Amino acid sequence: MIWYIGRRLLQMIPVFLGATLLIYLLAFYAGGDPIQAIMGDKPLSPAVQEQLRAQYNLDKPVLVQWLIFIGNVVTGNLGVGFNGRPIVDQILAAFPVTIKLAIIAVIVETVLGITAGVLAGLKKGSIYDTGLLLVSLIVIAVPTFVIGFVAQFFLGVKFQIFPVNVGRDPSWFNLLLPGFVLGIVSFAYVLRLTRTSVAEVATADHVRTATAKGLSRGGVTMKHILRNSLIPVVTYIGADLGALMGGAIVTENIFNIRGIGSLLYDAIQKSESPMIVAIVTIMVMIFLVANLVVDLLYAALDPRIRYAK
Amino acid sequence: MQIRRRSLILGSGAAGASALALAACGSGGSGSGGGASSSGDAVVFVNNTEPENPLIPTNTSELGGGDVLNACFSCLLAYAADGSSENEVAKSIESEDAQNWTITLEEGWKFSDGTPVTAKSFVDAWNFGALTTNAQRAQSFFEPIEGFADVSAKEPTAETMSGLAVVDDHTFTVRLNSPQSDFPSRLGYWAFAPLPESAFEDIEAFGELPVSNGPYKVESWTHDSEIVCVPNPEYTGPRPAKNAGITFVVYADEETAYNDLASGSLDVIGGIPSSALSTFEDELGERAINQPAAILQFITIPQYDPNFQGEAGALRRKAFSRAIDRAQICEAIFFGTRVPATDFTSTSIEGGGATDIPGSEVLQFDAAEAKSLWEQAEAISPFQGELTLSYNADGPNKDWVEAVCNSVTNSIGVTAVPTPYPAFGAYKEQIAAREITGPFRSSWVADYPSVFNFLFPLYASASADGNGSNDGQFKNEEFDRLLAEGQQATDPAEALAKWKDAQAVLMENLPSVPLWYQNTMGGHSEAVSDVKFSWNGGLLFPDIVKG
Fold first, then answer.
1. Residue B18 — pLDDT band, cuts 50, 70, 90?
2. Which of B18-32, B288-302, B317-331 has the lowest mean pLDDT?
3. What subcellular locations does the record give (chain A) (predicted)?
4. If residue B92 lies in a helix (H) or strand (E), which one and from where to where?
């Protein structure tokens, strides 16, 4: 087990290097000249351009820029962004907000999704089941930004239950609606996965045996059905973290949340490579760690699974 | 989507919307706010974008920071809503020959830290902005001043400009490289604001919390969230704040700001999301603002494109211009928030928006004439390759570019192909390298209210070859001569007449095809009144009344 975790952590180093290089190259070649983007229609004098290029290392070959970036990561100082503020400070200010948002979204998708999925799976074919399937179908079919704007308009502008914009006060309450919007698509998938899996396991031999032994209905559901149904769901949730972070870009912009998503969006617009790479790399790392946790959860859910040394 | 960076980027193009977006503002849900109400009136919440640079006047070239600077700094002049200007810190700005200027300051002006505003405050600030090693974004604004070449070289040979001299505490002189009769008109731009001595001791701290001499001062700046400005107790000038302060709330998306205006937690927005363009005037009624700004959208046709050179090229330029149904596109795509152009400048400045420039019929839509002109050109030399119209797709350009292409295709019978570039940076890079072929989208926001500011940077020979924004490489001696003659004229009317003649040269040669004037759009809540935009799309903050 320890060996397994250690090996997985070591594997992250090449993934980290590869991901940063790849993203660096993408940002470098796709974004165009950041100085041109900074200038807009009014050119800066060539001397000032040169000064800025030197300041942000843009005058060096892309691989050298990347090596400087890696060096900066090791020392923990990513330098100053195009807006004159330290990149690390900007990320540290934005991260807690996005984490809060993600926690709300994950709770929505796991707690609500699994609960609704189990209920639907146990009563397959009932009105309740059909209704949930219909709702989830709609949610999956409608893009997140539409759900976001509609929710913002009705719950924020019309009925004024939630704030229209989160802006300066990212409290848990203010993030509730955006978090819900962020998690709702995944909620629909989790619901469907759980439902199918529960419906399948519910007819398995061991469940019939357990019921025949006289176990309570709740006991059978929790210990014998749910636990065995969760492996595909947990796999999905791990992979879904990546989608959540991508969705955060859209959701954060709609609700004016100054988190990682909007920071990344701004940086992409400005071709600000160090910022883009730093944020995406952090996302990659979170993704890797989350999937490691998922792999470890397999053993907890199904004791037959063992990890190789 | 939004676009921030009106930096000049503007554009409907540009990077988006930034440009014009003049930022949005909004306040948080509750309307709590920085200074709470004092003295009976209340704090006004205005939307904004996060300033792209520290709040240093000479280092700001976009409206996110510019709005804050406008509220907090007083320059020699102040611009009014109609594009006129009046002296603010200056008592007089005089010259006999339009080249040697003597500027006298009113006495008694103070910065928010209590130190006096002197001639040195201006001279030091301008020298700071012009010096290359300070890498200030607005460096090029000091270009007319003698000695600029020395301080702006890659390796500066001087630290200060020889054309600036302090005479006494309240007088300084400016010697220009050449006569510029419109020189004073630029002195209301924030880049020409005075700086206190403390700024030079720690410019970084200053950029976070500037000490200023205007109607407001910055009380706090919470990055990516809000900038709280309160009335400056030291301010005694002509435009005192009529509200208890301005809180700039940073919005990432104009859509959110617009919704916040509807929900009542925001007072003023300086931009309308494109989704609301067709409806905002109905929804806001009298509270909607839709007025001309000094922004022109146009299509540059580069001189180096062989298809548009020589006699055939001249005919094709005219054919292209006459093939575009500007009025219909303004109505159908922009819902009347843009106005078909009749000249190369803007209606919001004095002498701009003229309808009687000789040759200006080339800007009128006439499909039959366009087709005939194009066919004449084909008879001289056939068009090579594909007729393209390039634009950056990260701004709100796609719809109108396709409409223009359709209009051209329908009129002259040659397929015009919209050619998107994914990112503004890459687009500008191609333009700067002169590697873009065929017509391409451009836009221009004036920095100061003068016709000259539209003509010189975009079409003068001195602005070509990477020294300005003459991206089409237009070079015409007669045009250059008329521009210079206008600058030497000491009578403003004479200057305008010369520049009108210069525009006639442009009509004949069409280095670019003007499309439409872009309006400033915005709106306000029922809680506030007297919301006005200046000629350049900036809000006149001190006049806003709340409660």
1. very low
2. B18-32
3. Cell membrane
4. strand B90-95
Work out the average pLDDT over B222-233.
92
Is B466–A46 a contact, with Cβ atoms under 8 angstroms apart?
yes
pLDDT of B15 above 60: no
Structural tokens at position A207: 């469940």
The whole-number pLDDT of residue B225 equals: 86
B93 strand-pairing partners: B103
pLDDT at A280: 87
| Binary contact (A167, B27; C-beta < 8 A) | yes
Residue in the block written with tokens 């919007």: A181
Which of B263, B447, B453, B473 is best to mutate for the A interface (most A CBs within 10 A)? B263
Please tell me the pTM assigned to this model: 0.81
Cα separation values, A192 from A117, A121, A124, A238, A241, Å: 6, 9, 12, 16, 18
What topology does CATH give the domain B293-519? Dipeptide-binding Protein; domain 3 (3.10.105)
Report the distance separating Cα B100 and Cα B15, nearest Å: 39
Please give the span between the terminal C-alpha atoms of chain B, in angstroms, as a whole number: 32
- ipTM reported for the complex, 2 dp: 0.74
d(CA B292, CA B144) in angstroms, rounded, equals 28
Average pLDDT value over all residues in chain B: 88
- Rounded-to-integer distance, Cα B394 and Cα B423, Å: 6
Residues contacting B278, CB < 8 A, separation 6+: B335
Collapsed DSSP state (helix, strand, coil) of residue A15:
helix
Phi first, then psi, for residue B290 (nearest 5°) are -150, 95
The letter for the amino acid at A123 is: K
Among candidates A46, A149, A167 on the partner chain, residue whose Cβ is nearest the Cβ of B225:
A167
Nearest chain A residue (CA) to B226: A168
Asked if the model's pLDDT at residue A295 lies above 50, the reply is yes
pLDDT tens for A133-174 read 999 999 999 988 898 888 888 888 888 888 877 766 788 888
The alpha carbon of residue A92 and the mean position of all alpha carbons in its chain are separated, in whole angstroms, by: 17
Whether B450 contacts B181, CB under 8 Å: no
Token digits of residue B330: 């303004």
Q: Are strands B512-524 and B338-340 parallel, antiparallel or unpaired?
A: antiparallel
Look up residue B6 and give its two tokens: 């009106």
- What does the pLDDT average to over A218-243? 85
Which residues between 174 and 203 in chain A have a beta carbon less than 8 angstroms from any beta carbon of chain B? 174
pLDDT of residue B490: 81
Averaged over A40-67, what is the pLDDT?
A: 81
- Which of B137, B224, B443, B536 is the mutation pick for testing A, counting most A CBs within 10 A? B224
- The arrangement of secondary structure in B23-29+56-209, i.e. its CATH architecture, is Alpha-Beta Complex (3.90)
Count Cα neighbours of B286 within 13 Å in the Cβ-side half-sphere: 4
Q: What is the rounded CA–CA span in Å between residue A95 and residue A253?
A: 15
Residue A236 CA: distances (Å) to CA of A46, A229, A300, B526 = 52, 12, 17, 49
Could you give phi then psi for residue B342, rounded to 5 degrees?
Answer: -120, 0
Ranges for all domains in chain B classified under CATH 3.10.105.10: 293-519
Per-residue confidence at B25, pLDDT binned at 50, 70, 90? very low
Q: Which among B435, B436, B485, B443 has a CA at the least distance from the CA of B460?
A: B485
How far apart, in Å, are the Cα atoms of B188 and each of A96, B79, B90? 42, 6, 10
Determine the residue type at B7.
S
**pLDDT of the residue at A41:** 62
CATH 3.90.76.10 positions along chain B are: 23-29+56-209
